[in-house]
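Standup notes
- HV: blocked on the assembly model, inputs below
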Amino acid sequence: MKCLLCNHQLHWQPRLSQWLRWGPISEPVICKTCQQGFHHYQPPFCPGCGRHLEGGKEYCADCAAWRKRLGWGLTHRCLYCYDDAMKEWMHRYKFDGDYLLRRVFCGELTAAALQLGADCIVPVPVTATTMATRGFNQVTGLLNCRLSPLLVTISRGKQAQSTKNRQERLATSQPFQLASTTSSLAAKRVLVVDDVYTTGRTIYHAAALLRAAGAREVLGLSLAG
Ligand SMILES: [Zn+2]
Ligand SMILES: [Zn+2]
């Protein structure tokens, strides 16, 4: 098998401990060099957004601002830094539509989502236009577990978040509504998963709807931020 990113031959032999472990052996899909190009956030983490937090503060400036503005805040986890390697991967996966590249992070994001032990896992939805052009929801593609599609997008000619600057992102109005099949979420812990956390605007919009539907707690998880 070849590395999905650089096409070099992968030389991989499962270790004895992997053979002895119960369950399927997951083969790596990228080489060590490519793997080393991606960077996990290092502790201490901001408990709000999950990114690295400097200076012994309780929350980063962004998360403190959200809490002040809304009177509540998310507990969000970010797996990777949104650096050049991640941007490049995201571009190839999302915008070039290379669906196979979901395999680079699918296992890790799924494990992180399941580890949070939520009652339901809600992927951030994409618009019908994105679905028609891209052919897949990039978040759903990264999750190999049972999902609850409780949110749908409100159809209006909207500008893609990725083309907006910070101020435009923060000013975005609610892009989602609850799916017609959503019943009460009373007492439920709900996890919202997205691909990239930038200002938090998207996931806070999602969380506001789920809280209004009765969710006891809304958690967030993004691949990168
Ligand atoms: Zn490689
Ligand atoms: Zn934060």
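- HV (later): unblocked. The radius of gyration is 18 Å. Residues 46, 48-49, 51, 59-60, 62-63 surround zinc ion (ligand 2) (CB under 6 Å).
- Next: hand off to the docking folks.
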